[in-house]
Amino acid sequence: MKSILVTALLLAITLQVCNGEIFSALATLKKALYIEKNLANHLRSYVSLIADADRAKKVSELAMEYDRIADESLKDPETYLANPINAYMLCKRFTTELQAVQDLLGTPALQAAFEEQLSLYKHEMPTTEDFEGVIDAILRLQDTYEISSGQFVDGSFSKASNSPRMTASDCFEIGRYAYENGDKYHALMWLMESLASLELEGSKHSVDTILLHDYLIYAADDQGNPRHALNHAKALLQLSPTNQKTISRINNVINWLNKEILEDNEVLISQGQPIPSQFALPPVKNKRLMKRATTQEFKNYESLCRGEDVMPNPYKHTLTCYYSTVNNHPLLLLAPAKIEVLYKNPDLFLYHDVISDAEIEIVKGLSTPLLKRAVVNDPKTGKLITAHYRVSRR
Q1: How far apart are the C-alpha atoms of 229 and 233, rounded to whole Å?
Q2: Pairwise CA distance, residues 371 & 349, whole Å
Q3: Which of 125, 323, 328, 348 is most buried (most C-beta within 10 Å)?
Q4: pLDDT digit string (tens) for 44-74?
């Protein structure tokens, strides 16, 4: 049930494209999968033109990886893209990682050739806005369905489709985005996941360790963890022992963190609580700070999304399912309507199998080209405008 709901919510969350409209259906992202397949062929054609053997090997391996992903995903694009981590990694490859691919080609001539190929697909490729939209989707899914960041990282959150294990870089990009947008709650958990993944990667680091610890200093402290922040500051100093600018800045950070720790100790003493040992870090505190998340209405909304009962149904023991021909309607004599009673007073019914899968595909095919970004009324001008919180298409 949860996997179905995760898929449904992902479809409703923003995946914007460069022309100001949005990817609010998986059908639009399918195009990017085919583009990736084409890019693999282009990269393979450049291998023989690269003089540096090591560079040529890396380009060949990258082309093989693109091919592998495309072959796997195109077997069942909808199931593949319904997994938010697969959608995230797809957009990441077309945004933050694409420049590195171009740089890997080495010569200006090959880079220009690759850029020319990219220009052919530009209007259908995911953009930075798409990438950020997928991150927003993941963070909303995480909160609504109470999915831990660790479950996203190892792919255990969904039984419906598989996703590869996320790298330290994958986790870092989500943490950095959350931090830059003032969301320290998600920033801290994803940056910590990045650090944990970094330790598993060994010498093949996929993220700048110095930058990671730098973000963790402020994210940890902002969430009320000065001791952990101090730990990251000291780690950063060890990583940059000769950088005088970094040393000076971090020493200042260490000074104000020590002051915070002293103030915390005074509060603990006044409350009669023990002071944490300097050799043993206390558990990380990371409270979700959002006013509306504490309201009963918002809690009910998230509970309903999870399929939980928030209101007892006094008629539950009397609910039934039945077939109906609706007064012997000729179209329903051989295939009667399947009706499920959901509630009484007021009467709520669920009609099953009203439309076939084949008919659904026809409707989708006819409607997709007609979809446009939903708009809201601007109270100041009275005109219809797009809004970041209204991301559906109609």
Answers
A1: 6
A2: 29
A3: 125
A4: 999 999 999 999 999 999 999 999 999 999 9
At 287 the three-state DSSP class reads coil
Residue 157 φ then ψ, to 5°: -75, -20
Cα-flanking dihedrals φ and ψ of residue 347, to 5°?
-75, 125
Map tokens 């009320």 to a residue: 224
| C-alpha–C-alpha distance, residues 369 and 21, integer Å | 12
Q: How wide is the angle at C-alpha 235 spanned by C-alphas 231 and 240, nearest 5°? A: 145
**Contact criterion met (CB below 8 Å) for 210 and 236:** yes
**To which residue do tokens 């990282």 refer?**
153
Residue 29 tokens read as: 């992202």
Residue 3 pLDDT grade (very low, low, confident, very high; cuts 50, 70, 90): very low
Q: Please, what's the largest Cα pairwise distance for the chain?
A: 87
- Which run of H or E residues covers position 203? none
Would you say residue 228 has pLDDT above 90?
Answer: no
β-pairing, 348-352 vs 337-343, is: antiparallel
Q: Residue 8 in contact with residue 379, Cβ under 8 Å?
A: no
What would the pLDDT profile of 104-129 be if each residue is shown by its tens digit? 998 999 999 999 999 999 888 888 88
User: Which of 266, 287, 265, 260 lies closest to 276 in space, CA to CA?
Assistant: 265
